[in-house]
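quick one, 403 residues, struct below
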Amino acid sequence: MNDFSPSHAAAASAASSPLGALQGLRVLDLSRILGGPLCGQILGDHGADVLKVEPPQGDDTRSWGPPFQDGVASYYRGLNRNKRTQFLDLSDLEGQLRVQALMAQADVVVENFKIGTLEKWGIGWEQMQQRFPRLIWCRVSGFGADGPLGAWPGYDAAVQAMSGIMSVNGEQGGDALRVGLPVVDMVTGMNAVIGVLLALQERQRSGQGQLVDAALYDSAISLLHPHAPNWFMDGKMPQRTGNAHPNIYPYDTLQTGTIPVFFAVGNDRQFRLLCTHIGCPQLAEDARFATAGQRSVHRATLKPLLEQSLAAFEGEQLANDLMALGVPASPVLSVPAALQHPHTAHRGMWVEMPGGYRGLGAPVKLSRTPASYRLPPLTQGADFAPRGEPVEAVAYAAASDAR
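---
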């Protein structure tokens, strides 16, 4: 634990309750684990009234720790703010009737049950669309409902492996590696939000809801830039290149006199500025390195030449000086260092709420209807707020009884 706290602006955002861009939207979140709950949290951050339904034993991620607070893992707490939660057994008739009553009031349903499970209980999309024609149904799944892999369960790391992501992640000559965060789950959650917003926009014209199909597999395949277009063009097998970019150079971690620094040199002008600043302007005039394409071809020769000059510099100061010149460069920070960076606070990306909750802020900033942080995780609630009444007015009355 540390005593760093967010900036005044970030703290004020956490305390205030602007209406939000999605104020008045009712979301029934039947999802668990990551992709669906992240979708629900994003919608909630921007003002939607989100009711989360968990099975009697709770979302699996409540036990994904340590660390734990009051028996609930940090993993769960990071994905379930701005929601009110209740527990229903959807395999039971009483639970099915209750959730149907909530669907009748909702604008959006978000779920990530194994394909066929809700249908078996009589409360799947196909059964509900006739009863609730304006309902937007967001299904987060591993591989979609049909096709060669249809209805298979999906897990982030397994999809990283089979989508090709893992094959291009790791050091040159080393083993394939999982990306060190659940990137497929998270991007699927974001794609689910995009799909919901698209469907809401279309509903204004047609008056009809529709199915939003967000699959981990599709999201993973969509991330294969630039490796997919490279392969489409030249047919060569994409390789692992460590921190280095496969197309441009120096876009890599290089050793300075103190610490490694990542350089993201994207054009010839930036390369000339870099070489001039570190005292080797002749490299920018060398035909092997004068253009982006040639630097990429001759990267194995260029890297040690750059590091020879970089050895005279203190890494963090060098990165700051280069950024001031317009050359992208950054020291490689730890997660705590990144979270405690002054700019993280300035951008409102660290938020606190009453009761000790701390979490990541919303990355999308809207000038008139910003995101807000109204409900801590584990806030109880069984019903949507009345139309036109702030969600937090209903929720805070029950917050002290949160499970």
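The chain has 18 helices and 13 strands.
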